Amino acid sequence: xxxxxxxxxxxxxxxxxxxxxxxxxxxxxxxxxxxxxxxxxxxxxxxxxxxxxxxxxxxxxxxxxxxxxxxxxxxxxxxxxxxxxxxxxxxxxxxxxxx
Length: 99
Prior knowledge:
Layout: E1 5-10, E2 16-19, H1 26-54, H2 60-98
Antiparallel strand pairs: 1-2
Helix pairs in contact: 1-2
């Protein structure tokens, strides 16, 4: 069985979801769009974090909230990187097999 694409969401139980197939279908396009949104939101969050951390008088509650959002964002970005890295590795192996 071919390795599946790690999708940018989990099941209701929190388990990883995978897509098996060529990568050109509807679910693959939705996953691409979600990854794009996640990466864009991570960039915006970094900007917000930079601004917040340069302020004096930031409360513990604000820092806790920021840390939680950064943790969520880092988890999303890592999942995107893991998914793309696995797909890239399979492409490299496939191209070496063709050579």
